[in-house]
Amino acid sequence: MSGSRDTFGRFREGVAQIAYGNPIYQLTLGGRTPTALSVVPPDPWPGDVDAGTMLLSGIYRFAGQKVTGHPAGEPEWRPQGASPFWIAALNGFEWMRDLRAVGGDQARRLARALVLSWMDHNSSWNAQTWAPEVLGARISTWIGLHDFYCASADDEFRMRVFDSLARQTRHLARVTPGVLEGADLLAAVKGLAYGGLCLPGNEKLAGDALRLLERELPRQVLPDGGHVERNPSVQLRVLRDLIDLRAVLRVARVDTPEALQHAIDRMTPALRFFRHGDGGLALFNGAREDDPALIDAVLAQADARGRPLKSAPHTGFERLIAGRTLVLMDAGAPPPPGVDARAHAGTLSLEVSVGKERLIVNCGAHAAPVGPWRAALAGTAAHSTVSMADTNSAEVREDGGLGRRPSHVSCERQEVDGAVLVMATHNGYARNFGYLHRRRIYLGENGEDLRGEDLLEPVLGANPAPQPFTVRFHLHPAVQASVIHNGQQVLLRLPSGAGWRLHAAGGLLDLAESIYLASGDEPRRAAQIVLTGHADANGTTVKWALRRERKGA
Q1: All residues at 6 or more sequence positions from 176 whose CB lies less than 8 Å from its CB, including other chains
Q2: Beta strands in 444-539 (DSSP E)
C-alpha cells in the first residue's frame, strides 16, 4: 500500500512540475504590485530566545535536525540531507518570532537578510518551498511580522516583499485545497485569507478563503471541540491559526463567521482538557509537551472561558481528576485515513500526573513525524497500554499514517460521589489473534487510589491460540522506581518526595528501560513497569492498583 502511495505521490509531483515549474507559468503570477499592506494583523505569539540566538550564530535547528548555515543570512534553502520537515520549517519562516524575541538591530537585520535571500533563490515554483501549507505559513508570517522586519526597511526591499507576497498568494489560491487535509489545509487557508485581506486588490481571494474555512471547520472540529487528528499539539496549532484568522478579520473590519467563532469557543476547553499540571500537553498521537507559555498565550487570546471537559466522546478521550491526581486516557478510534499522518497505535493508553509532576506517560514523539523514530515511538509498546505478541494494535507506517487499525472502540463512563470509572474496549487484536482488549480505570474521590483492570477476552465464537501479552506503564524520567516485596510491588518516588506504590496480579512484574522524547531532539532515559503473561481461550485478567504512600505507613 505504501508503495502505491509513493508512486502516486511521484506522479502528482511530476504533473505539478510540468504545470508550475516552467517560465510561462511564472509570468502568469504577475499582476499589480501592492505598495503597502491594507492592514497589519497582530502577532501575539512568543518566540524562543535560545532558538533565535542560534539563528544569529548560523545554526538552523528544525524538526529534530541541525544544519549550519552562514551567519550573514545566506542559508541553503533546500540543502542535501535535510529532511522534508526541516525544509518546510525553514521555508515557512515561523522561526522569525525567535529572532523577534531576541530583539535588537542584529536580529532585525538577519530577518531582513533571510527574507531577501529567500526571494533571490526561490522566485520560481518548487514542490517543497512552494507547497501550499508552507506557502500559507510563510505568507501569514511575513504579513504578521511586517512591523518587525519590514516597516523600517528601504522602499526597494518593501516593494520586493509585497510583489513576492502577491505572487505567492496568487499561486496559493490556484492550488488550495488540492489534496490537503487536516491542519495543513487550515494553514493554507490562513495564508490565503492573510493575502486576500492584507494585500490590496486581492479581496476576492479572502472570500474564497472564508468559504473554504466554513466548509472545512465542521469536518475538522468535532462537536466536543477536539480536532479530528486527535493530537493535542495539532489542537494547539489549529486553535492558534483560527485565533489568527479571527484577528485579521477584525483588523480588516470583516465580520467573523459564526462557524469560526464557535470553533474557537469549542476548541479552547478541549485544549485545556489535554494539559497536565505542569502546563504541558499530554502525549497522544504524535503530540509533544509544547511550551506552556505558548499554550497560556493561546488560551488567553482565545478569550473563551469554558472549563476543561471531563469527557471528549467525539474525539475519544477521557479525563479523570480527583484531588491532585489527573488521568488522561485515549478511549477512541484512531483518526481516519487522510488525517492520520501523525497517528500512533496507542489505543486505551493512559497518562497520570500528580499536581505539577508527571508520573505515568507515553514515550512521546520525535520532532520529525516520520522516519526512523516513528516505528519506535508510534508503536503500541511505546504507550502505557497493553500489547499482544509484540504486535501493534494498529499498523504503523514509517512514512506516516496507519494501515490496519481497530474498527471498533467503545467507552462508558460512570461517576459516583467524586469517584470515576471508565470502561473501554478495542478490537485491534481481533483480526490477527482473536482477542479483545478491555480496560477499566477507577479513580477514587480523594485522588490517592487509582485502580485498573486489563482483560484480554476471546472474540465471541472464537477459540484463539494462547498469545503473550505485556502491560506497560512508562514512567517520567524524573520518577525513581524500585521493585519491592520480592517482586510483587513497585515503589515510585516523585521529585517532590511523594511516594506511590503499584500492586499487580495476573502477570509477572518487572522494571525495564524506556525512553522519553517529549521536547527537544534527544531522548531521555526512563524506566517502565512491565507486566507479562499469556492470554488463552478462557480469557485473562490483569489487575493493578496505584496508591499514594502515607508518611509513617
Answers
A1: 132, 136, 185, 188, 189, 192, 212
A2: 449-458, 467-475, 480-484, 489-493, 499-505, 508-516, 524-535
CATH code, domain carrying 442 = 2.70.98.70
464 and 352, same domain (yes or no):
yes
Predicted confidence at residue 74, as pLDDT, reads 79
Q: How far apart are CA 462 and CA 427, in angstroms?
A: 13
Grid cell listed for 472: 506497560
Where among 147, 177, 204 does a domain terminate? 204
The sign of the CA dihedral 312, 380, 547, 435 is: positive
- Report the alpha-carbon angle 44-48-52, nearest 5: 115
Instruction: From 174, 204, 234, give the residue that closes a domain.
Output: 204
Percent of residues in the chain assigned helix, strand, coil, to nearest 5: 35, 25, 40
How many angstroms separate the CA atoms of 293 and 280, rounded? 9
Q: Which three cell numbers stand for residue 480?
A: 525513581
Is residue 133 within 8 A of residue 187, CB to CB? The reply is yes
Residues 483 and 337 in one domain: yes
Cell of 455: 482483560
Is residue 101 within 8 Å of residue 294, measured between CB atoms? no
Overall domain count for the chain: 3
DSSP 8-class letter at 506: S
| Rounded Cα–Cα distance for residues 553 and 549 (Å) | 7
| H runs (alpha helix) in 367-481 | 372-378, 430-433
| 473: nearest Cα among 355, 329, 334 | 329
Residues 6+ apart with CB under 8 A from 372: 398
Contact 432, 354 (CB under 8 A): no
Residue 518 falls in which region: left (phi positive, over 0), alpha (psi -120 to 50) or beta: alpha
Q: What is the 3-state secondary structure (H, E, C) of 78-136?
A: CCCCCCHHHHHHHHHCCCHHHHHHHCHHHHHHHHHHHHHHHHHHCCCCCCCCCCHHHHH
Q: Which residues pair with 522 in a beta bridge?
A: none
Predicted pLDDT of residue 461: 85
Distances (CA, A) of 13 to 8, 128, 237, 329: 9, 10, 27, 40
Range of the domain at 305: 221-311
Task: Classify strands 499-505 and 540-548 as parallel, antiparallel or unpaired.
Answer: antiparallel
Please report, for residues 276, 287, 339, 447, 522, the alpha-carbon distance to residue 423 in angstroms, rounded to integers and kept in the order given: 22, 24, 27, 18, 35
Given a cut of 50, the residues of the chain with pLDDT beneath it are: 1-5, 7-8
Three-class SS state of 511 = strand
- Cα–Cα nearest to 63, from 46, 51, 75: 51
Q: Cα(73)–Cα(51) distance, rounded to whole angstroms?
A: 15
Q: Rounded to whole angstroms, how far apart are CA atoms 527 and 514?
A: 5
Residue type, 484: I
Residue 45 CB coordination number (10 Å): 20
Q: How far apart are CA 389 and CA 536, in angstroms?
A: 12
Please answer whether residues 72 and 375 qualify as being in contact, where contact means their C-beta atoms are separated by less than 8 angstroms: no
Note the pLDDT of residue 13.
63
H/E run at residue 438: strand 435-443
